[in-house]
Every structure is written in C-alpha cells, then in structure tokens.
Amino acid sequence: MKQSYDVVIVGGAVIGSAVAYFLAANPDFTGSVLVVEMDPTYAKASTSLSSSSIRNQFSNPINVRISQFGTEFIRNFADTMQVGSDRPDLAFHEGGYLFLANTEEQAQTLRENHAVQRARGADVVLWQRDEVAAAFPHLNVDDILLASYGRSGEGWFNNTGLMYGFKNKARSLGVEYVTDEVVAIGREGGKITDVTLKSGAVISTGVLVNASGPRAALTARMAGLDVPVEPRKRTLFVFDCAQSPEGSAAVNQGRLPLMIDPSGVFCRPEGRFFLTGCPPVEDPCSDWDDFEPRYDEFEEIIWPALAARSPAFEAIKAVNQWAGHYDFNTLDHNLIVGPHPEVKNFIFANGFSGHGLQQGPAAGRGVAELIVHGGFRTLDLSEVGYERIVENRPFLEKAVI
C-alpha cells in the first residue's frame, strides 16, 4: 500500500467494487485506486444479505434506464468479468416481476408506471384479472383489478457473485484493496486531502468515494458533511412448500415470477424453496450491529397473505431466515450519486434503499465518469445527485418496495 492514491473508495462491497472496476477499465483513467474494506468476509454486508433481484418496473424514467443497463450488464457479466479461466456466472434467473393491484389507486399507479416503462422500451405488460389467472393458475385473483408483469429483463441472480466479480476484475486491472477501516478524513476547506486508517496509516487522496453502505452517514461526518442515510433492518425468509406451484405457470416455461402482493409481501422461487419478505410494520433506524431477524413477521404477516393469495401456500414452513440492512435514504428512498457541491472531490454513492445490487453497475459507471471526465457521459444521473439533499427536494419514485 502506498501513501498516496488518486482515488480512495470507502467500502468494497458491490458499490465500491463497481466504482473501482469502471475506473480501472476506463481507458482514459491512468490513476491509482485504493479500496478500504473493513470486513473482507462481507458477512454482514448489505450485498451479501440481499434478495439479489433486478426489475425494470419503476415509475421514474432514470430508474428504469438504470435497471435496463443493469440487466444487460448482468447478462454479459461472465464475459466482461473474465479473469484468466475464471468466468463468473451469476446464474441470472429471468423470472420476471409480477405486481398485483387490488385497489383502484394501486391499479392507476401501475398504469402510470407502465406508460413510463414502455416509453423506455421495457418489456412489461398490463394484465386484467383473467389474464393473470390464465398465466398463473395457482393464484387466487378474485380481488385483483390489474397486474403488471415483466416478461423479460427482470429476475434474480447471485449477489456475492456480482460483488466478487467486480472485485476480482478490478484487482486484475491494478486496483488495490486493503483490509482496514477509515477512522478520520482530512479536509482543507472545500477539498478532501487524506484518510486516516485504523491501522494508523495516513493516505493522501485526490478523490474520496463514499461507498460505505448503511454506514454512509458515519463516513460523511468524518469530513464534516451530512447524508440522510441510516441502517434499516429487513428480514428475509426461506420456506418449504408442501405443494410447490413452481412449474405451473402458463408462461416463461412454467417458471414463477417474483410476485409482489398488494399487501407488500413478496415471494419468489429459490431453487426448490421460496424466498419471501415484507415491509416492516414499524421501521426504525437500526443499530449498526443489530442483525437479529424479526421472526414474527413470517407467522403474523407473510404466511396469512400468501395463504390467502394461493392454496399452494397454505402449507409452508420457514427453513431459514436472516436480517440485513438497507442503506436507507430517509429523504426519498433513492440513490444519491454525485459530488458534494462545496467539497467537490467527495463523491457520494449511497442511499440505494434496497436497490444497490441492481443499480450498482450504472452507479459505478456514473461515478467513474465523474472522476475521469468531470461529468456523466453515458447515463445522466444528475437527477439523483446530492444537490437535492441540500435543497430538501425529494426524487419521486412510486415503485419502491
């Protein structure tokens, strides 16, 4: 490890490693990059504990385009990230998303979102009740007014595979990783000058990238800055099903999609099992080290909703559960990508609020473009920049789950 780097990235999970890769792969970048990661096992990283899904069904055009890029990047990941004979296959299961609406307000939101999605070329269709019943005969759709189904470009994939693919490729291109923790950030007026590591090393830097996930606010505060990001706990459950409906669909070769029930409960196949979760009834800021699952959510919220939605889900049993943290943007639940307006060499890549894996490729590319070119070159992410935080101007996205 040297005493000075052109770029220091705080956090080496999927966002930090995506930034590192896109920097190192950019032919116009000739600088040095150091990624500081406090836990190389990534055991408690949001990346490792996520449901690792991607969808194009958003309400804001920029979020649709971010995910469309993510889909293509994931499809081509093995080729792009090949290092020697290692080709990281993410096992992308293109099962689609199925949003169900049982109120007119929900149905109208699906219609409005669909218009945005189709305008951007997303392969999404709106279905009436009978069309849903024909496609997925295991579902009880008596109360459903409308559904939105992604026929392609949506699904789930290997979460740690994405992270390690970025990391290994970045390292092969010259990026350095160090197991350490940033404990102080040096700043002179409107410029970040260095970082101090827990080991005692002081590293000079030209640019600092905050990719520290749920700990983003702690990193920002070291530089005298603020970002409205905090850890929010989400529990995921894996359940076995006595009479699995997987394979019963009349579309997509019998494969079931990731279904979002009107109650907010979601469910998708996970091998021979199913993965499920729900929005918490209460959603306080979590302690940084609190990863205790909310066990009662399965019996009290998830099972009743799924049993009502499908007879196949009346006899289910949880076989595993874990809790992870969203890096939750309390202003508007959306990503923050871009420099601080007064400290321009401090760049935020934070607040993904549960969408970090699917938005990581576009965010990483965008941050790299800011550093190398001084502005976005491919996809303009200025709408989700830090300026809206200063102005207390929320970025509207209606399809947050």
UniProtKB/TrEMBL annotation:
Signal sequence region: none
CC per GO annotation: cytoplasm
UniProt entry keywords in alphabetical sequence: Membrane, Oxidoreductase, Transmembrane, Transmembrane helix
Taxonomy, superkingdom: Bacteria
Single GO BP term: mitochondrial respiratory chain complex I assembly
Pfam families linked to this entry: DAO
Gene Ontology molecular functions: oxidoreductase activity
Chain segments annotated as transmembrane: 7-24
Annotated ranges, domain FAD dependent oxidoreductase: 6-370
Protein name (Swiss-Prot/TrEMBL): FAD dependent oxidoreductase
Organism for this UniProt entry: Mesorhizobium amorphae CCNWGS0123
